[in-house]
Amino acid sequence: GVPENYLFQDSEGNTGPTKAKDKEFVLEVDNDNADKNCKEVKTLSIGHSENETEELSRSDKFLKDQIDCSDLEDARKCAEKKSGGFYFRNNLLFHKEKVLGESVAQLVLPKKYRPEVLKLAHCSVFGGHMGARKTIERIRYSFYWVGMSRYIKAFCQQCKDSQLRRRINCKDRVPITPVAWPELPFQVVNIDIIGPIDPPSAKGHRYVLCLVDQHTRWAEALPLTSLTAKATCEALLTIFMRTGVPNVIASDNGTNFNASLTQEFEKRMGSSPRFSTPLHPESNGLVERFNQTLKKRLYHVILEEPRSWHTKIPFVLWAYREVPNSTTGVASFQLLYGRKPEGPLSILKNTWMAGQEGLQLDTTPVTLYMEKLNS
């Protein structure tokens, strides 16, 4: 038989130097059928697949561009001295930085790659034309270059689409009322409905049901064709079959609407969560802020594809969940799943790294985040 660690033996019983785990196949020789052996050898696939070869060529090109980029000369000198957070790994230049208390390995970008990353992080359907601060936070998890924050701010300020929908902040005298923090995800959620949206989607959607979890700030949004209690209940149940039914649903849609929803839930489930109407509309501010974000993102989508805006809602949700929340300081994705979100920027980074591991040098448990938030 063939030894476990080796591909073949010769007639003397000597083993070859190549370990089987480094190969993609084991060659079995039939001494009684030489023609068959020759035919089978012709059909063997040797080496890397086309996808692997393409990935290697991309990473090799990136490495060459990183070496040739004069803009990175000082960073390379720092890496040679192991100073400034710069270091080499498999010849690639990295930068180590604390992001939200965690040590992250940032791939240092040559100048020619920066516009591509900016467009993906800000202008694409995955980016959602978020503001400069959130765009910086999104990129910092994967990439770095000297003067990055200044560069990104200038890029976002020059983005015409973002400036057209830029929100003007006005100071007011409304007192800020703290919201009690639920102990677990989806114990208490806030819901609201935006619409009617003009034009309606190709499938007749004119409204969007929005839901935000008070614990993690995780957001959900489902398009609706009508505002009946039945349609709203069906949409909520679609969400709750993934998240579990909350104890309390906070809504400012009025007692009559909430009473109809309660009846619909009892009809379908035999019981109902408790619907709570805040004393003031601003008390439902958690979901109201998400509404504003969703409206701005949908505005950009409707300009480009007026009738298919409903298909872009999942991408808008991803952009919202991926970046750290301004209140918690942590992305809602991470609070819910306990790990960093892996999005298009992470995939792009892996492509240029040829699949090297170790993107994140240190991981902080979610429980520590929650202890800080509750303290």
Automatic annotation (TrEMBL):
Gene Ontology biological process: DNA integration
Coiled coil segments of this chain: none
Integrase catalytic domain span: 181-340
GO-annotated molecular function: nucleic acid binding; RNA-directed DNA polymerase activity
InterPro entries: Integrase_cat-core, Integrase_H2C2, Retrovirus_Pol_polyprotein, RNaseH-like_sf, RNaseH_sf
Short name of one Pfam family: rve
Class of the enzyme per the UniProt entry, highest EC level: transferase
Assigned EC number: 2.7.7.49
Top-level lineage group: Eukaryota
Entries under PANTHER family matching the protein: INTEGRASE CATALYTIC DOMAIN-CONTAINING PROTEIN, PROTEIN CBG26694
Name this polypeptide is given: RNA-directed DNA polymerase
Organism: Araneus ventricosus (Orbweaver spider)
